[in-house]
Amino acid sequence: MLQKTACFLVIGNEILSGRTQDANTRVLAQALNEQGIRLMEVRVIPDIEERIIRTVRDCSAAFDIVFTSGGIGPTHDDITAECVAKAMGAPLVRHEESFRLLEAALGADRFNAARQRMAYLPAGSTPILNTVSVAPGFSIGNVHVMAGVPSIFASMVAWLVPQLEKGAPLVSASWHAAGLKEGDFAADLATLQKNFPTIDLGSYPYHLPEGASGVALVAKGYDSETIGKAALALHDLIMAHGREPLSGEPAHKQTA
Length: 256
Hints:
The chain is 38% helix and 26% strand. With 256 residues, it is of the alpha/beta class. It has two domains: 4-163, MoaB/Mog-like domain (Molybdenum Cofactor Biosythetic Enzyme, Chain A), CATH 3.40.980.10; 171-247, TATA-Binding Protein (2-Layer Sandwich), CATH 3.30.310.
């Protein structure tokens, strides 16, 4: 089964300045893992028109699917919808259904010109719904534009991603061992990665609250049979270095 690839564009000066911490990448990645879509790249870009347009065009051509977050609200720096419309060669037009829903939800007295901007979508796009607010995201071509507010973003992801073409879900297997040191087995792990080129092998040091520390070894990929073979190899690697392999991730791990 051919795996779909995806890119996530996090748009916003507040992310780059450190004022706001991105909370949306993990939500999207986990949803895509379940859907069998591989998130290959995440880019954080500023609220600059030329940068947004160029990046959307580049990523739309390079990946099967592009997701964005941020910049679709009512303020002056919410320029994502306009920029994506230009990137995709479509005019920005009033989406009548979204306009009516927003007016009904906010009330005519509060539905001012600034809020009306949220009902303008690229021509030919379809709204992305959410259960938190009425203001829509939208899909146009292979680009899906969503809000930056984490609760709204999560709602949009929950509505949108299950509708996308499904691939083989991400499968993982892991072993961990107390007292294991990355420097001891790094060369052996590199050899294993060469033996299993179609999956990802990783090592993750951990420190538990009670003081125990060690390393978790993880195999991830989209072929369950290959993951099973790699998991056995990771088990044997730990044994070869004189440690007791325990299945799964360490409880209450704190990664280094």
